What does this fold into?
Amino acid sequence: MQTNLLLRKGLAVGIILLFVGTGIIPSTAQDLEKPPQPTSRGHWLYVGGSGPGNYTHIQEAINNASNGDTVFVYHGFYNEGRIYINKAINLIGENRNNTIIDSTGYVSSLYVWDNVKISGFTIQNAGKEICVFAQGNNITISQNIICNNGDSAICLYIGDHNQIFDNILRNNEYGIAIQYSDDNEIHDNQIINNKKFGILLEYNRNNRIFSNNISENNVGVALYHETLTVITKNNIYDNLVNNYFEGIGANKWKKNYFGSTTFGPKLIGGKIQILVGWQISFEGWLDPVYKYIPWIQFDWNPAKEPYDI
It folds into this structure.
């Protein structure tokens, strides 16, 4: 009697293990067909590759995505004109060295709005257009190569709490341009050989620029009427002009490396504006008249050696 009971228990355990094993094996095999998916609120849509139901065009997948979804793009060459991302999704390339969004033959760029994340692409050849135009909040642009564009690699316009990090930005007109945007972070980027500015900031507040390599640009970092922005622990060297500012917005230059051993504070040359009078505008309003005079700011404790970025 006891022996039969033990046999029945053993048989039951075996059946349970068989069902568990049957459930695990197909799940594991399915994972091998697609890239691993982190825990996410939404669904994954695929572009390129050879999987059934994969999209051919990036924009087509974006159009069919919903907030919280991820569009994963397999390696390949994608030349499809402007791409608009107006929903809160992740756009992820398989590998930034061989997942290429190319705009040759198009007046093209990526337009992105709130809560979008873009990573893992080479984005190139956008003609005279801004390559990645971001307008909104909580946008992340990371781990991309953005090169050979006739305007800004990345332009952030009217957006707060965004992050731009771990990108290679080279051979553009501008590396990064930010206007009317507050509380953003730019860090761990390689910003190299851009024709005008490596980083240009205008009319912003409370931005943080740190741990970037900024070299071989016409102007490394330029601040125009910037307020309370911190520029710290960057390598800023071998630019035609390393630093420049206009206006006096209580910005801080801290512990940057400027390409040579500096004893004592590093002088940052620029201009400030002072009010010299008023004039009547065409509409009959009184408009202020300013004059610019040379001024200096300081990095009081510049780094003696370059940072490992």
User: Anything to note?
Assistant: The chain has two helices and 28 strands. The mean pLDDT is 87. The longest helix spans residues 2-33. Helices lie at 2-33, 58-64.
